[in-house]
Amino acid sequence: MIVETDPRRQGILILDFGSQYTQLIARCVRESQVYCEILPYDAPFAEVEDFDPAGLILSGGPATVTELSTPRAEPKLFEFGRPILGICYGMQTMAAQLGGEVENAHHREYGFARVIQSHRSVLMDGLFDDGDGHSDSGLDVWMSHGDRVIRLPEGFNPIAVSENAPLAAIADEKRRFYGLQFHPEVTHTSQGRAILSRFIHRVCGCAPNWTPENIIDGILENVRSKVGSDQVVLGLSGGVDSSVLAVLLQRAIGDQLTCIFVDNGLLRLGEAEQVLDTFSSQLGIHIVLVDAAERFLAGLKGILDPEEKRKAIGRMFVDVFQEQASEIERARWLAQGTIYPDVIESAGGRSTNAKVIKSHHNVGGLPESLHLQLLEPLNELFKDEVRSVGRELGLPEEVVDRHPFPGPGLGVRVLGEVRSEYLQILRQADAIYLEELRQSGLYESTSQAFAVFLPVKSVGVVGDDRAYEYVVSLRAVETIDFMTADWKRLPYELLARVSSRIINEVRGVSRVTYDISAKPPATIEWE
Ligand code: XMP
Q: How many other C-beta atoms can be found within 10 angstroms of the C-beta atom of residue 351?
């Protein structure tokens, strides 16, 4: 084992060949409590040396090694003396670059496959699946490839075979180079995490030191040394990222932190009170509450177009925030809850150069006009890690496990023009929905759930009277990355209870519908 006190040293470096699963690989490595970063496949070798990885992972990718113009790994990586794991395209390019051969298979293999271990290897020895009655000590894995390796480079042995990929896993134990044709990073490969963990811990010798406690210690130290005795301003939204950041910053610099919480009138039921109670009363964080509800409502009058609404809300937020922040003496830093996926996404499409950091969509434009330096202490963390850090810091579960809430808030959930009357109806309906979802125990397994107000009227019967009232639609989705999503199959009984409660308890609603659209083509929000 490598004894390293800074958990960010001697981690794993993932070189991205464009796979849709690259972030998943990174999350698996982090779940093994080892720090990792993603760089584009053609990052300058100096950057790789600078990172000083204990091991490298070459990701999959959409291209084919059988064409000359497609991505290749930097040849120096194979002379670097560090262990390498190539996954799918990563394995194919490694095999081809080291003298093996890759062919275009006759048909694409996509889905479950059974691989049988043919040679003992530290990567998979003793791991097998027999859950579905197999007696061959093989593994159930997930394949997604068109090409396959047909001849191994010198020094390599096959370690697992499958019907469609006779070289499903390969190893050169001497150089510590490994290749997997299947995807260990997806949950369908049930032993996938164990295989990755073998590579990370046993082959690369990484210590499991990327823990919430160490992450917190690192952030506190970093923030203190950067900020010194300056004042820091944070826009607190009540969402997971800014909440965790507020607590971290308070730990790091105490009363040098001022949080600005803007009540834009587009918050959910009781949200402003809840945020004040948790952060100000319970945690003693200095919060400036700005009641700007009237100002936002007035500014949204007559605007129907979703993008125009978003822009207007963004502009007003900047103005209000700026007015408040400029009153804080000696403020030098603007803290933002940017997380690692934001960093990766903003660097996406670019294959070289260092990271470009996206300014958070809720506070975009602020740094320049306020002359504040940007402080982004969470920018190395995935969302799950932010949550673990939050739990470790003792934040209440209702804050840590919160579904995401968009910056423009209920402004994009009241379709068309935002009116006070509509917001009131939506707030009550949404609160009933979330209360029932929590009570049914399904909140945590739902990625995001909310109600939407439709400004159309429909006929109903309430008591003996004809009602002609508005429509509320319920949305619940399951997703890993919010880029694609499926609608959640909520139990009918729960939907029935929510619908009946909303129609009975919320004046102005005569009909409730359930949104069964997937993303794509629909988006998660309605606007
Ligand atoms: P869509 O609707 O694009 O949403 O499928 C994907 C995720 O992003 C959130 N979202 C936003 N968040 N400002 C934000 O801070 C926005 O303007 C915005 N629009 C959508 C949405 O709630 C979902 O989690």
A: 14
